[in-house]
Protein backbone atom coordinates (compact mmCIF):
# COMPACT_ATOMS: atom_id res chain seq x y z
CA UNK A 1 0.00 0.00 0.00
CA UNK A 2 1.04 3.58 -0.57
CA UNK A 3 1.65 5.82 2.43
CA UNK A 4 1.87 9.52 3.30
CA UNK A 5 5.40 9.92 1.89
CA UNK A 6 4.30 8.33 -1.38
CA UNK A 7 1.43 10.80 -1.45
CA UNK A 8 3.81 13.75 -1.00
CA UNK A 9 6.13 12.51 -3.75
CA UNK A 10 3.19 11.85 -6.08
CA UNK A 11 1.83 15.38 -5.50
CA UNK A 12 5.25 16.91 -6.23
CA UNK A 13 5.62 15.00 -9.50
CA UNK A 14 1.99 15.47 -10.55
CA UNK A 15 2.19 19.23 -10.07
CA UNK A 16 5.46 19.66 -11.98
CA UNK A 17 5.70 20.03 -15.77
CA UNK A 18 9.45 19.36 -15.73
CA UNK A 19 11.65 16.67 -14.12
CA UNK A 20 12.24 16.97 -10.37
CA UNK A 21 15.55 15.84 -8.91
CA UNK A 22 15.74 13.32 -6.08
CA UNK A 23 17.59 15.90 -3.98
CA UNK A 24 14.80 18.45 -4.46
CA UNK A 25 12.12 15.88 -3.62
CA UNK A 26 14.04 14.75 -0.56
CA UNK A 27 14.28 18.30 0.80
CA UNK A 28 10.53 18.87 0.39
CA UNK A 29 9.56 15.51 1.88
CA UNK A 30 12.25 15.37 4.56
CA UNK A 31 14.03 12.17 3.53
CA UNK A 32 17.35 11.30 1.88
CA UNK A 33 17.92 11.01 -1.87
CA UNK A 34 18.32 7.23 -1.46
CA UNK A 35 15.01 7.05 0.40
CA UNK A 36 13.34 8.98 -2.42
CA UNK A 37 14.61 6.38 -4.90
CA UNK A 38 13.19 3.55 -2.79
CA UNK A 39 9.80 5.26 -2.56
CA UNK A 40 9.85 5.83 -6.33
CA UNK A 41 10.35 2.07 -6.79
CA UNK A 42 7.31 1.39 -4.61
CA UNK A 43 5.21 3.79 -6.68
CA UNK A 44 6.37 2.04 -9.84
CA UNK A 45 5.37 -1.34 -8.40
CA UNK A 46 1.93 0.14 -7.75
CA UNK A 47 1.52 1.05 -11.40
CA UNK A 48 2.82 4.63 -11.52
CA UNK A 49 4.95 5.25 -14.61
CA UNK A 50 7.85 7.42 -13.43
CA UNK A 51 10.65 8.06 -15.87
CA UNK A 52 14.22 8.96 -14.89
CA UNK A 53 16.61 11.32 -16.64
CA UNK A 54 19.70 13.33 -15.78
CA UNK A 55 17.40 16.11 -14.61
CA UNK A 56 15.33 13.96 -12.28
CA UNK A 57 12.00 12.13 -12.10
CA UNK A 58 8.90 12.69 -14.24
CA UNK A 59 5.40 11.30 -13.75
CA UNK A 60 4.63 9.78 -17.16
CA UNK A 61 1.44 7.88 -16.29
CA UNK A 62 -0.70 6.57 -13.47
CA UNK A 63 -2.80 3.45 -12.90
CA UNK A 64 -6.57 3.49 -12.92
CA UNK A 65 -6.76 2.00 -9.42
CA UNK A 66 -8.67 4.11 -6.85
CA UNK A 67 -5.89 4.29 -4.27
CA UNK A 68 -5.46 7.08 -1.74
CA UNK A 69 -3.11 9.00 -4.03
CA UNK A 70 -5.82 9.61 -6.61
CA UNK A 71 -8.91 9.53 -4.37
CA UNK A 72 -8.74 12.48 -2.03
CA UNK A 73 -11.90 13.73 -0.37
CA UNK A 74 -12.38 15.97 2.64
CA UNK A 75 -13.55 13.94 5.65
CA UNK A 76 -13.07 10.68 3.72
CA UNK A 77 -10.48 8.05 4.67
CA UNK A 78 -9.42 5.92 1.69
CA UNK A 79 -7.88 2.44 1.68
CA UNK A 80 -7.00 0.40 -1.41
CA UNK A 81 -5.73 -3.18 -1.64
CA UNK A 82 -4.55 -5.37 -4.49
CA UNK A 83 -6.56 -8.31 -3.16
CA UNK A 84 -8.80 -8.58 -0.13
CA UNK A 85 -11.34 -11.07 1.16
CA UNK A 86 -14.24 -8.59 1.11
CA UNK A 87 -14.40 -4.80 1.20
CA UNK A 88 -17.63 -5.05 3.21
CA UNK A 89 -15.93 -7.21 5.84
CA UNK A 90 -12.89 -4.90 5.85
CA UNK A 91 -15.10 -1.94 6.77
CA UNK A 92 -16.50 -3.86 9.73
CA UNK A 93 -12.96 -4.56 10.94
CA UNK A 94 -11.77 -0.96 10.62
CA UNK A 95 -11.85 1.57 13.42
CA UNK A 96 -13.58 4.27 11.40
CA UNK A 97 -12.11 7.65 12.29
CA UNK A 98 -13.34 9.88 9.47
CA UNK A 99 -16.84 11.01 8.57
CA UNK A 100 -16.70 8.66 5.56
CA UNK A 101 -14.52 5.63 4.84
CA UNK A 102 -14.01 4.12 1.39
CA UNK A 103 -12.28 0.76 0.96
CA UNK A 104 -11.60 -0.71 -2.47
CA UNK A 105 -9.68 -3.60 -4.00
CA UNK A 106 -8.58 -4.81 -7.42
CA UNK A 107 -9.92 -8.28 -6.56
CA UNK A 108 -11.88 -10.04 -3.79
CA UNK A 109 -11.62 -13.64 -2.70
CA UNK A 110 -14.83 -13.72 -0.65
CA UNK A 111 -16.99 -11.07 -2.29
CA UNK A 112 -20.68 -11.37 -1.56
CA UNK A 113 -23.81 -10.20 -3.27
CA UNK A 114 -27.48 -9.80 -2.49
CA UNK A 115 -28.98 -12.48 -0.18
CA UNK A 116 -25.49 -13.62 0.80
CA UNK A 117 -24.67 -15.12 -2.59
CA UNK A 118 -21.03 -15.25 -3.72
CA UNK A 119 -19.92 -12.33 -5.91
CA UNK A 120 -17.37 -13.14 -8.59
CA UNK A 121 -14.58 -10.60 -8.05
CA UNK A 122 -11.59 -11.25 -10.33
CA UNK A 123 -8.81 -8.75 -10.95
CA UNK A 124 -9.74 -5.82 -13.18
CA UNK A 125 -13.04 -4.93 -11.57
CA UNK A 126 -14.05 -2.12 -9.24
CA UNK A 127 -14.97 -3.41 -5.79
CA UNK A 128 -15.53 -0.79 -3.14
CA UNK A 129 -17.48 -0.07 0.03
CA UNK A 130 -18.43 3.36 1.33
CA UNK A 131 -19.20 3.49 5.05
CA UNK A 132 -20.69 6.32 7.09
CA UNK A 133 -23.00 7.01 10.01
CA UNK A 134 -26.63 6.98 8.93
CA UNK A 135 -28.86 9.98 9.58
CA UNK A 136 -31.94 7.77 9.42
CA UNK A 137 -33.36 4.84 11.36
CA UNK A 138 -32.80 1.51 9.62
CA UNK A 139 -36.33 1.27 8.25
CA UNK A 140 -35.69 4.41 6.13
CA UNK A 141 -32.26 3.46 4.78
CA UNK A 142 -33.55 2.34 1.38
CA UNK A 143 -32.93 5.96 0.40
CA UNK A 144 -29.15 5.39 0.48
CA UNK A 145 -29.35 2.44 -1.89
CA UNK A 146 -31.60 4.39 -4.24
CA UNK A 147 -29.30 7.42 -4.30
CA UNK A 148 -26.17 5.30 -4.63
CA UNK A 149 -27.61 3.54 -7.68
CA UNK A 150 -28.59 6.90 -9.14
CA UNK A 151 -25.04 8.20 -8.61
CA UNK A 152 -23.49 5.20 -10.43
CA UNK A 153 -25.91 5.62 -13.34
CA UNK A 154 -25.04 9.29 -13.66
CA UNK A 155 -21.29 8.62 -13.43
CA UNK A 156 -21.27 6.03 -16.21
CA UNK A 157 -23.47 8.22 -18.41
CA UNK A 158 -21.41 11.37 -17.89
CA UNK A 159 -17.98 9.70 -18.19
CA UNK A 160 -18.65 7.17 -20.94
CA UNK A 161 -22.05 7.98 -22.48
CA UNK A 162 -23.61 4.58 -21.65
CA UNK A 163 -27.20 4.21 -20.47
CA UNK A 164 -27.16 1.81 -17.54
CA UNK A 165 -30.29 0.53 -15.80
CA UNK A 166 -30.56 -0.56 -12.18
CA UNK A 167 -32.87 -3.44 -11.33
CA UNK A 168 -33.91 -3.06 -7.71
CA UNK A 169 -32.42 -3.98 -5.36
CA UNK A 170 -29.01 -4.97 -6.70
CA UNK A 171 -28.20 -5.24 -10.42
CA UNK A 172 -26.67 -2.79 -12.91
CA UNK A 173 -27.70 -3.71 -16.46
CA UNK A 174 -26.24 -2.51 -19.77
CA UNK A 175 -27.64 -3.77 -23.08
CA UNK A 176 -29.36 -6.64 -21.23
CA UNK A 177 -26.05 -7.68 -19.64
CA UNK A 178 -25.23 -7.48 -15.95
CA UNK A 179 -22.16 -5.30 -15.45
CA UNK A 180 -22.30 -4.92 -11.67
CA UNK A 181 -24.23 -4.87 -8.46
CA UNK A 182 -24.99 -2.89 -5.32
CA UNK A 183 -25.22 -4.20 -1.77
CA UNK A 184 -26.28 -2.23 1.29
CA UNK A 185 -25.92 -3.27 4.93
CA UNK A 186 -26.92 -1.17 7.93
CA UNK A 187 -25.86 -1.89 11.49
CA UNK A 188 -27.87 -0.26 14.28
CA UNK A 189 -31.23 -0.21 16.00
CA UNK A 190 -34.49 -0.34 14.05
CA UNK A 191 -35.51 3.14 15.16
CA UNK A 192 -32.01 4.55 15.62
CA UNK A 193 -29.22 5.52 13.27
CA UNK A 194 -26.20 3.29 12.76
CA UNK A 195 -23.35 2.44 10.38
CA UNK A 196 -24.39 2.25 6.75
CA UNK A 197 -22.23 0.33 4.25
CA UNK A 198 -22.76 0.62 0.50
CA UNK A 199 -20.85 -1.97 -1.49
CA UNK A 200 -20.47 -1.53 -5.25
CA UNK A 201 -19.06 -4.09 -7.65
CA UNK A 202 -18.54 -3.21 -11.31
CA UNK A 203 -16.96 -5.35 -14.00
CA UNK A 204 -14.76 -2.73 -15.66
CA UNK A 205 -11.82 -4.40 -17.45
CA UNK A 206 -12.58 -8.03 -16.61
CA UNK A 207 -15.12 -10.01 -18.61
CA UNK A 208 -16.92 -12.21 -16.06
CA UNK A 209 -17.44 -15.91 -16.64
CA UNK A 210 -21.12 -15.86 -15.72
CA UNK A 211 -23.67 -16.18 -18.52
CA UNK A 212 -25.53 -12.92 -19.08
CA UNK A 213 -22.75 -10.76 -17.64
CA UNK A 214 -20.30 -8.39 -19.33
CA UNK A 215 -17.72 -5.74 -18.46
CA UNK A 216 -17.85 -2.01 -19.09
CA UNK A 217 -14.93 -2.07 -21.54
CA UNK A 218 -17.02 -4.15 -23.96
CA UNK A 219 -19.37 -1.19 -24.45
CA UNK A 220 -16.99 1.79 -24.28
CA UNK A 221 -14.58 2.78 -27.04
CA UNK A 222 -12.34 5.07 -24.96
CA UNK A 223 -10.18 3.97 -22.00
CA UNK A 224 -12.04 3.53 -18.73
CA UNK A 225 -10.63 4.44 -15.32
CA UNK A 226 -11.73 2.97 -12.02
CA UNK A 227 -10.20 5.97 -10.23
CA UNK A 228 -12.31 8.37 -12.33
CA UNK A 229 -15.45 6.34 -11.61
CA UNK A 230 -14.83 6.41 -7.86
CA UNK A 231 -13.98 10.12 -7.80
CA UNK A 232 -17.16 11.02 -9.70
CA UNK A 233 -19.29 8.62 -7.65
CA UNK A 234 -18.13 10.07 -4.33
CA UNK A 235 -18.68 13.62 -5.60
CA UNK A 236 -22.25 12.94 -6.74
CA UNK A 237 -23.32 10.70 -3.87
CA UNK A 238 -21.89 12.90 -1.11
CA UNK A 239 -23.47 15.92 -2.80
CA UNK A 240 -26.80 14.07 -2.61
CA UNK A 241 -26.31 13.53 1.13
CA UNK A 242 -25.42 17.18 1.75
CA UNK A 243 -28.54 18.42 -0.01
CA UNK A 244 -31.10 15.91 1.21
CA UNK A 245 -34.02 17.42 3.15
CA UNK A 246 -34.45 14.69 5.77
CA UNK A 247 -38.18 15.15 6.59
CA UNK A 248 -39.25 15.20 2.92
CA UNK A 249 -37.14 12.21 1.90
CA UNK A 250 -38.25 10.10 4.87
CA UNK A 251 -41.89 10.99 4.17
CA UNK A 252 -41.46 10.08 0.49
CA UNK A 253 -39.94 6.69 1.21
CA UNK A 254 -42.33 5.81 4.02
CA UNK A 255 -45.18 6.38 1.56
CA UNK A 256 -43.72 4.67 -1.51
CA UNK A 257 -41.01 2.25 -0.36
CA UNK A 258 -43.29 -0.77 -0.97
CA UNK A 259 -43.01 0.01 -4.69
CA UNK A 260 -39.22 -0.24 -4.80
CA UNK A 261 -39.26 -3.98 -5.48
CA UNK A 262 -40.76 -3.20 -8.91
CA UNK A 263 -38.67 -0.10 -9.62
CA UNK A 264 -36.05 0.24 -12.33
CA UNK A 265 -33.68 3.18 -12.67
CA UNK A 266 -32.24 4.15 -16.03
CA UNK A 267 -30.60 7.06 -17.83
CA UNK A 268 -32.39 6.22 -21.07
CA UNK A 269 -35.41 8.17 -22.27
CA UNK A 270 -38.32 6.96 -20.18
CA UNK A 271 -41.18 5.39 -22.13
CA UNK A 272 -44.71 5.93 -20.88
CA UNK A 273 -45.35 3.94 -17.71
CA UNK A 274 -41.71 2.89 -17.28
CA UNK A 275 -39.46 3.69 -14.32
CA UNK A 276 -36.18 5.51 -14.66
CA UNK A 277 -33.75 8.34 -14.01
CA UNK A 278 -32.97 11.47 -16.01
CA UNK A 279 -29.83 13.50 -15.47
CA UNK A 280 -31.75 16.41 -13.94
CA UNK A 281 -34.48 14.47 -12.19
CA UNK A 282 -35.00 11.20 -10.38
CA UNK A 283 -38.09 9.30 -11.48
CA UNK A 284 -39.72 6.23 -10.04
CA UNK A 285 -42.72 5.04 -12.00
CA UNK A 286 -45.05 2.19 -11.27
CA UNK A 287 -48.15 0.99 -13.17
CA UNK A 288 -50.41 1.55 -10.16
CA UNK A 289 -49.48 5.19 -9.45
CA UNK A 290 -48.71 8.48 -11.14
CA UNK A 291 -45.08 9.34 -11.83
CA UNK A 292 -43.14 10.34 -8.73
CA UNK A 293 -40.42 12.93 -9.16
CA UNK A 294 -37.63 14.29 -6.96
CA UNK A 295 -35.61 17.05 -8.59
CA UNK A 296 -31.86 17.00 -8.02
CA UNK A 297 -32.13 20.63 -7.00
CA UNK A 298 -34.39 19.56 -4.17
CA UNK A 299 -32.02 16.90 -2.86
Q: What CATH architecture of the largest domain do you see?
A: 2-Layer Sandwich
CATH superfamily of the largest domain: Bira Bifunctional Protein, Domain 2
Major sheet summary line: 8 strands, mixed
User: Pairing-aware structural class of the strands and helices?
Assistant: alpha+beta
Tally of domains: 2
What share of the residues does DSSP label as strand, in percent?
A: 25-35%
**So how many helices?**
7
Using only CA atoms, what is the Rg? 21 Å
Strand and helix order: HHHEEEHEEHEEEEHHEEEE
Shape: globular
Q: Uncertain spans, ≥5 residues at pLDDT below 50?
A: 267-299
CATH C-level category of the largest domain:
Alpha Beta
Report the strand count: 13
Widest sheet: strand ordering: 3-4-5-9-8-7-6-10
Binned, the helix content reads 25-40%
What is the averaged pLDDT score?
79
Distance between the termini: 36 Å
Structure write-up:
With 299 residues, this protein is an alpha+beta fold. The chain folds into two domains: 4-61, Arc Repressor Mutant, subunit A (Orthogonal Bundle), CATH 1.10.10.10; 76-298, BirA Bifunctional Protein, domain 2, CATH 3.30.930. The protein is 29% helix and 25% strand. It contains seven helices and 13 strands. The protein has helices at 4-14, 22-29, 33-45, 87-93, 142-160, 226-243, 246-256, and strands at 49-53, 56-61, 76-84, 100-108, 126-133, 165-167, 171-174, 177-187, 195-202, 264-266, 276-277, 281-284, 292-295. It has an eight-stranded mixed sheet with strand order 3-4-5-9-8-7-6-10, with helices on both faces. A hairpin with a 2-residue loop joins strand 7 and strand 8 (177-187). The protein is globular, with a radius of gyration of 21 Å. Residues 267-299 have low confidence and may be disordered.
